[in-house]
Specification:
- The structure holds two protein chains of two kinds.
- Chain A contains 15 helices and twelve strands.
- By secondary structure, chain A is an alpha+beta fold.
- In chain A, the strands form two sheets. In chain A, strands 1, 2, 3, 4, 5, 8, 9, 10, 11 and 12 form a ten-stranded mixed sheet that branches.
- In chain A, β6 and β7 form a beta hairpin.
- The radius of gyration of chain A is 20 Å and the shape is globular.
- The two termini of chain A are 18 Å apart.
- By secondary structure, chain B is of the alpha/beta class.
- Chain B has three domains: 289 residues, Alpha-Beta Complex (2-enoyl-CoA Hydratase, Chain A, domain 1); 181 residues, NAD(P)-binding Rossmann-like Domain (Rossmann fold), CATH 3.40.50; 214 residues, N-(1-d-carboxylethyl)-l-norvaline Dehydrogenase, domain 2.
- Chain B is built from 30 helices and 18 strands.
- In chain B, α10 runs antiparallel to α11, α13 packs across α26 and α20 packs across α22.
- The longest helix of chain B is centred in the first third of the chain and has 23 residues.
- Classes of the chains: A alpha+beta, B alpha/beta.
- Chains A and B meet through α5 and α10 of A and α10, α11 and α21 of B.
Chain lengths: 403, 731
């Protein structure tokens, strides 16, 4: 089997995902196009060698609809032979794009792929694509689907994480991100976003709140208590799957959950041979990847299982990984992963994550993979496992090693 | 035409008067629908008919489908289902869909049709109204209600109700009508936009005709070009939240045990995404699906057919006839006595309410005053009506006032000596034909009857608490109780609109005996180390209204303690210790946790909030189990132990009629209504499968799951309770 290598990884800074956010006035197409241009220009890439552009997007409707990957590739002046496909594995879409790209390369059917993701959450709000999952009784009623926030609080309840545990995690996330920016750890991967005039409109993540402390978080009200306990009462639905619990403790709020942001990402993946032919330096090798389905009501416990699956495929054990990166969808998701695999928090999300920087759904997976490529080099480490929890009860993971 | 009268006026408006001969209520039978189809065809094709108004020649408009006729088709379908299920389903669909086609033909006939609803319109009756272009109802008939009660018997409104109502008022407003059987007054229906108007009965037809005249091109909103689903279809920003919310709200309440609820949601959701004709086909499929399920069969039988029959007094002994109960004496004005006086007065019965002092008697009457005041405040009644009810109760200490009562209910403390004294005092005064009933729950009637000079007229009339909310009354036969006394007790219970079941004299009678098994299994699970939340939740998932620990809290733990002590004394060496004993003893003696009444029991009570007491783990003999049992195992234990006890009462001849046993289980202690009751629960599984599972449970968990010989015999012979015992009483 051919090996798949990572040659480059870029991302936008993440803009606040609301009307006042810096990226709200930039189209989703422009965000993604600029990332594809950066991949092309930073690597002096002959885009005719790119077989496919695979982009994750969770709400592929409106301006993100109609296969935005293909549209962005043309818009970025890629050779017209570079195809494009948009994929959706919810929050892991960006990582799934990388894994699919890697699979194409490993199978020998593709030599060079650009993978990544796009989500302008301020312009195409979450849920814009509808979907049977929440409304069709054949699924929602029969399989007891509840919103993710309820699932996250269920994880906290079932595995014993208090509000303080979750808040403490969030404070640490903010601290680590502030430090990472201060030390320039993101400099390599960040591609500032330009406006319609070509002037930089955002060069740094704008969701961060470095001054966050336990007191400021303590003042926030739990976000999901109303929909959980009153109207329409999702707790009562979730507990029918977890009847050993009397009630759900609602511990998550805006400060210890991922932020809603705008952003895009792109990763250049290919064979060693094609890389050499194009004069590219391989930075990391994709050792293994995996996806998995898990219990859909608690929904967000997939990382525990998908990490084990990816480790097994790579012939590795938990202790063989130098750095773990798990998308900070909710604090309890990360705390449960640490607990399940008994991992040292010091090597988990070393530069913070979605709690501090935000989670541009379709783009995040490839963003955090890029963060790990940079971080392995900076900290002179060898291996990293990147994983995300996924709606509907899934997980995706990728293991990379520095070359 | 047999069922409809037709009358064409000079304006070309056809008045269709629904008036089935020989029935008090119009129902939608096959014969009715055949004529209805001809009428629609006539309206469509005859040029001199410009439009039509539909009304009823009876006090009520139409009571819906003919449930008896529908039930009659079940046997044939069941046998077809086993030989050729697809053909059976198709046949059923065709039948069901034909009703939808008739109503659809009406609303697309090209001429304006208006409904003039003069009285009650339920189920299919309301669905006819919804299929009319103009909808009018009388505003001066207090009995007029519009509603779709199908879900209450495990079905769905299958004549367009799941499609037209949401298209008129939106999902959120339609949901309580479709799923909870919520009924509307004419004014409410008008405010919601279901009705175009209301009028006094004398003006109703005129009003409807005027509308037909004014709207020659009437069309249903959903047949107009730019129809928008009110409140939003599923895939609109607004609708998305609502449809998602409806799934959760209903799932939370039903635990997935009521397929009707799920099918209603599916019919509304899927139907909302397609035009009306396709939507009606979808509705018919989901209706047919329900019709083939045991839940609907069981619910129709117990909650509709049996309930009506037993309420009417079908449990009456042969040779006895129905009589009037006009005046009763209630002795003991405590919580039970006050409740019995209240429900009696509410039903128009004069009540002499006696206590040992006037203050006590007045306090008992105060309950009725308070309840009536609440009703007036909530506009459920008027002060005039309330006063009438209150004035029917005479609170006194004077036994002489009992001289002309038809029946006595004694509801004093469970003290044989006290009861004996009261029996004497009352019997000195009451007439020869008056029946003396004791509302005891623990003392055998035969024992109490020893104090009576006329034990043939002495009987047990066992109410459940709270009296005004609990539908069941057990009528207990003592050794010497006469058929006449039973018949009179049934007269009384029927009059107060409760469900009378006739039970032989035994410890715990029927309902309490079975429900004790439920609570007992809760203790077994607790002492085995099952998490308390899992016990309580699994019970609710099985369909019980509250968990066994919550139930014990409601009836009071110290009461359970007293009953336990009494049972010990009574049984002596025959008493078998059980898992509940050390738990109850500790709760009462060590912790003084008596249940809800003192704010602490198995739960901790904070106003309206409650949560399980954190210290319950101490009752797990070997600690909380690391590996908790599967939910299904707990559900089975909880349901089987109750059902087996119900079967034992048949085996011992305590209860005789499966209908009474089923109703007793649902209305006496809340046995999962979707099963049709504890006996239907066994019949639905089949005796053979039930016994096999019970034997597994016995081997794993103990003798409470030992089935009586009767069930083994039934399993061998392939009998069901209804096949074996069902005919006796009816004969």
């Amino acid at each position: 089997m051919t090996d798949a290598y990572i040659f480059d990884a870029v991302r936008t800074p993440r803009g606040k995902g609301k009307k006042s956010g810096s990226l709200h006035e930039i189209t989703a197409l422009s965000l993604l196009t600029q990332q594809l241009e950066a991949i092309r220009d930073r690597n002096d890439l002959d885009t005719s060698k790119v077989d496919d552009v695979i982009m994750g997007c969770v709400s592929p409707v409106g301006e993100q609809g109609a296969d935005i990957a293909r549209v962005a590739a043309i818009s970025a002046d890629y050779a017209e032979t570079a195809a494009g496909v948009t994929i959706n594995r919810f929050c892991a879409s960006g990582l799934e794009a990388v894994n699919m790209g890697a699979a194409k390369v490993m199978s020998g059917m593709s030599d060079m792929i650009v993978a990544g993701g796009i989500e302008s959450m301020s312009r195409v709000p979450m849920g814009s694509d509808g979907g049977a999952m929440a409304v069709d009784p054949s699924f929602a009623y029969e399989h007891q689907l509840v919103p993710q926030g309820i699932s996250a609080d269920l994880i906290a309840t079932k595995y014993g994480f208090s509000r303080d545990d979750c808040d403490a995690y969030a404070v640490e996330s903010q601290k680590r991100t502030a430090k990472a920016w201060d030390e320039g750890r993101f400099d390599k991967g960040i591609v500032p976003v330009k406006d319609q005039l070509g002037v930089t409109i955002l060069s740094k993540d704008e969701h961060m709140r470095p001054s966050t402390d336990m007191q400021s978080l303590g003042a926030l009200n739990p976000s999901f208590i109303g929909m959980g306990t009153v109207m329409p009462g999702f707790d009562g639905v979730a507990l029918q799957k977890y009847p050993e619990l009397e009630k759900i403790n609602h511990v998550h709020h805006a400060g210890n959950s991922s932020g809603i942001v705008d952003g895009a990402s792109a990763v250049l993946i290919g064979t060693k041979e094609m890389g050499e032919a194009l004069g590219l330096k391989a930075r990391a090798r994709i050792k293994s990847f995996a996806e998995i389905g898990s219990e859909p009501t608690i929904m967000l416990t997939g990382p525990e299982f998908v990490a084990a699956k990816a480790l097994k495929k790579a012939g590795m054990e938990v202790g063989d990984i130098d750095l773990y990166e798990l998308n900070e969808a909710f604090a309890a998701v990360v705390l449960r992963f640490l607990q399940a695999h008994d991992i040292d928090p010091a090597i988990m999300n070393v530069n913070g994550g979605a709690i501090s920087m935000g989670h541009p759904l379709g783009a995040t997976g490839a963003m955090i993979l890029g963060t790990m490529v940079d971080e392995l080099e900076r900290s002179d480490k060898e291996t990293s496992l990147i994983t995300l929890c996924v709606g509907g009860g899934m997980g995706a993971a990728t293991i990379i090693e520095r070359v | 035409m047999e069922h409809f009268k037709l009358d064409l006026d000079k304006n070309g408006i056809l008045l269709i008067t629904f008036d089935s001969p020989g029935r008090s209520m119009n129902v939608l039978s096959n014969a009715v629908m055949a004529e209805f189809g001809q009428i629609v065809e006539k309206i469509k094709t005859e040029a001199d008919i410009k439009g039509a108004v539909i009304t009823s020649g009876k006090a009520a408009f139409c009571a819906g489908a003919d449930l008896d006729e529908m039930g009659g088709q079940t046997a044939e379908l069941q046998s077809m289902m086993s030989s050729d299920p697809e053909a059976a389903k198709k046949k059923l669909f065709d039948q069901v869909y034909s009703l939808n086609q008739e109503f659809r033909a009406l609303e697309t006939c090209g001429k304006p049709i208006a409904a003039a609803v003069n009285g009650l319109a339920l189920g299919g009756g309301f669905e006819i109204v919804l299929a009319c272009h103009g909808r009018f109802a009388a505003n001066d008939n207090p009995k007029l209600k519009l509603g779709l009660p199908e879900a209450l018997v495990g079905l769905l409104p299958g004549a367009g109700g799941t499609q037209r109502l949401p298209r008129l008022v939106g999902l959120m407003a339609a949901a309580p009508i479709l799923t909870q059987g919520k009924q509307l007054k004419a004014s409410e229906a008008q405010a919601m936009g279901i009705l175009h108007g209301t009028a006094p009965q004398t003006e109703l037809i005129k009003t409807a005709k005027q509308w037909v005249k004014d709207n020659p091109k009437a069309k249903q909103p959903w047949d107009a070009d730019r129809f928008k689903f009110p409140g939003g279809a599923p895939y609109t920003a607004q609708g998305f939240q609502m449809f998602a919310g409806a799934n959760a709200m209903i799932r939370k309440e039903t635990y997935g045990n009521y397929p009707a609820m799920e099918n209603i949601l599916k019919a509304v959701y899927e139907g909302s995404l397609v035009p009306m004709d396709a939507a009606l086909r979808i509705e018919s499929r989901y209706f047919a699906d329900l019709f083939l399920r045991p839940e609907s069969k069981n619910m129709i039988r117990s909650l509709f057919v049996s309930k009506q029959a037993i309420e009417k007094g079908e449990g009456r002994p042969a040779g006895q006839t129905k009589g009037e109960i006009n005046k009763v004496g209630v002795i003991g004005a405590g919580f039970m006595g006050a409740g019995i006086a209240y429900v009696s007065a509410m039903s128009g019965i004069e009540v002499v309410l006696i206590d040992r002092d006037q203050e006590g008697a007045d306090k008992g009457k105060q309950f009725t005053i308070d309840e009536q005041t609440k009703r007036v405040k909530r506009r459920k009644s008027t002060q005039e009506k309330a006063d009438k009810i209150i004035n029917r109760i005479e609170a006194t200490t004077d036994y002489a006032k009992l001289n002309d009562v038809d029946l006595i209910v004694e509801a004093v403390f469970e003290d044989s000596a006290l009861k004996a004294k009261i029996t004497e005092l009352a019997e000195d005064v009451i007439g020869d034909k008056a029946v003396f009933g004791s509302n005891t729950s623990t003392i055998p009637i035969t024992d109490l009857a020893k104090a009576s000079k006329r034990p043939d007229n002495f009987i047990g009339i066992h109410f459940f608490s709270p009296v005004h909310k609990m539908m069941l009354v057990e009528i207990i036969k003592g050794e010497k109780t006469s058929d006449y006394a039973i018949s009179r007790a049934i007269d009384f219970v029927s009059r107060i609109r409760k469900v009378p079941i006739v039970v032989e004299d035994t410890r715990g009678f029927y309902a309490n005996r079975c429900v004790m098994r439920y609570i007992q299994e809760g203790y077994n699970l607790l002492s085995e180390g099952v998490k308390p939340a899992l016990i309580e939740n699994a019970a609710k998932m099985a369909g019980m209204p509250v968990g066994p620990l919550a139930l014990q809290d409601e009836v009071a733990i110290d009461l359970g303690y007293k009953v336990m002590q009494q049972t010990k004394r009574d049984l002596g060496n025959n008493y078998e210790p059980n898992a509940g004993e050390p738990i109850i003893t500790a709760m009462v003696e060590k912790y003084e946790r008596f249940g809800r009444k003192n704010g602490k029991g198995f739960y901790v009570y904070n106003g309206k909030e409650k949560h399980l007491w954190e210290e319950l783990g101490q009752f797990a003999v070997n600690g909380i189990l690391d590996e908790q049992p599967a939910v299904q195992e707990i559900k089975d234990r909880i349901m089987y132990t109750q059902a087996i006890e119900a079967a034992r009462t048949f085996d011992e001849g305590i209860i005789h009629d499966p209908r009474e046993a089923d109703l007793g289980s649902i209305f006496g202690w809340g046995f999962a209504p979707f099963t049709g009751g504890a006996i239907s629960f066994i019949d639905t599984k089949g005796a053979k499968a039930f016994v096999a599972r019970a034997d597994e449970l016995r081997d794993a968990h103990g003798s409470q799951f030992e089935v009586p010989a009767l069930l083994r015999d039934m399993a061998e012979k392939g009998d069901s309770f209804y096949s074996r015992f069902g005919q006796k009483k009816a004969a």
